[in-house]
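note to self — DONT lose this again. spent like an hour looking for the file last time. sequence + predicted structure for the chain T wanted, 333 res
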Amino acid sequence: MSTLKFQYTRTDFNYVQYYVNGTWKEGKLKSEDSLNIPTMATVFHYGQEAFEGLKAFKRKDGKVQIFRPYENAKRFQASCGYLLMPKVEIEDFVQAVIKTVKANLKFVPDYGTGGALYIRPYMIGVGETLAPTPSPSYIFGVVVAPVGALFKGSLTPVNLLVSEYDRVAPLGTGQYKIGGNYAASMFAQNLARLKGYDDCLFLDPTSHTKIEEVGAANFFGITKDNVYISPNSPSILKSITNMSLKYIAEYILGMKISSSDIYINELDHIVEAGACGTAAVITPIRSLDFNNNVHIFPTLDAAGPITQKLYNLLTGIQTGDVLDPDHWTMIVE
């Protein structure tokens, strides 16, 4: 298995494209991994930025394929649109990702290691504005790095502290992938780790009674009735991994799917729980500590049988070992 950690390792090339005077200029690959940005750029002072996260995998036949780039492109458009940043067309986003991966193919971890090439598209406001208004100019870029799993080990269950702090505001930016959401999560996540937990779990910001996100990942559960459940809230990031797991659960495993409220004090119907996301992949949850009351899921220190099946199918599709359900993957030629 891979010894890679989820951290940045410089690669040979990254992609940069400038938006000036209402028009996107031609994007280019460059070897420098730094940008020259004015000190009054809106990204620094008003947080005008959005980003994405997706992965490329090496298959058994040696080819490299990217997982669901079109879904990331659509979500990126939504995030940028909310922050009044210019649109990157779907195909332009995908082609920028492909160019960057192709230029860094030697960094894609080998098949069977559990590693992947993490892909980070981003957009930042770089115009000089003193007032809190949208930037007149922007940079769209793509950076890649070889990575391992976000959490401590593949399918190793984690213990979570239910946070008293909010990740986002009601009817705010929670459904978008923007840096402010992650910055607002860091204090609670750090507090949980200082107390000996692997991460924290956030509740809904209105009532503090319903499960929302696991740190920077979506929450899912498997019920006694064999239903795949996940929270339904406008404050939750629309996870492409969760979307994929729902499809696998319903159409491959024949399970029922439910997106509904999951109350923190009503968890006995859940026999397996997990966090899912591009970085987390699938990470089983062992326990939740809510107000010093610890709920331990029946699977204890192992992944549950459904979680294991979901993981095997998802990672199998990502690496080409399992048939692609519906044009989810794109081979880099």
